[in-house]
Structure to design on (130 residues):
C-alpha cells in the first residue's frame, strides 16, 4: 500500500502536536517546582494570582518572597498538602483543582468566573501539576 505525501505530512504534524502539547501518555515537558528564589517569573505570577482568588492579598509581581512563601504554606495547610512553602506537583494540583471548584461555585451562584477561567487557561501549564 502506497502512503501519500499528504498522509506522511499529517502523521508528522500529529506526532509533533502530541509531543509539543503533551497529549497522550505522560507530559512532554515537566514544569519545575516554584519556590523562594525561583527564576520562573510567569510561574510565580500564576501562583500569586491563583492564591489571590482565595483572599491571600499578594502583589502579583513575580517575586517569590516571604509573603508568597507564607501564603503558599497557609494554602498547603488549609488544603492538606505537605507544608514546605514550595509549589510542587501536589500543591500545584491542589491550586488548580480548588480554582476549578471555585469556577463551578461562582457559576452556580450566578456570578462571573472570567478571571478564574482565564487563569486556568493561562496558568495550569505554568505550575507543577501531578
Amino acid at each position: 500500500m502506497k502512503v501519500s505525501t499528504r498522509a506522511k505530512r499529517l502523521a508528522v504534524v500529529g506526532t509533533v502536536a502530541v509531543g509539543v502539547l503533551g497529549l497522550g501518555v505522560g507530559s512532554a515537558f515537566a514544569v519545575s517546582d516554584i519556590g523562594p528564589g525561583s527564576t520562573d517569573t510567569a510561574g510565580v505570577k500564576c501562583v500569586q494570582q491563583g492564591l489571590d482568588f482565595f483572599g491571600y492579598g499578594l502583589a502579583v509581581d513575580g517575586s517569590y518572597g516571604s509573603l508568597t512563601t507564607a501564603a503558599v504554606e497557609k494554602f498547603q495547610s488549609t488544603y492538606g498538602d505537605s507544608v514546605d512553602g514550595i509549589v510542587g506537583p501536589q500543591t500545584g494540583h491542589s491550586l488548580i483543582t480548588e480554582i476549578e471548584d471555585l469556577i463551578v461555585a461562582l457559576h452556580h451562584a450566578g456570578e462571573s468566573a472570567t478571571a478564574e477561567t482565564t487563569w486556568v487557561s493561562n496558568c495550569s501549564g505554568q505550575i507543577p501539576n501531578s
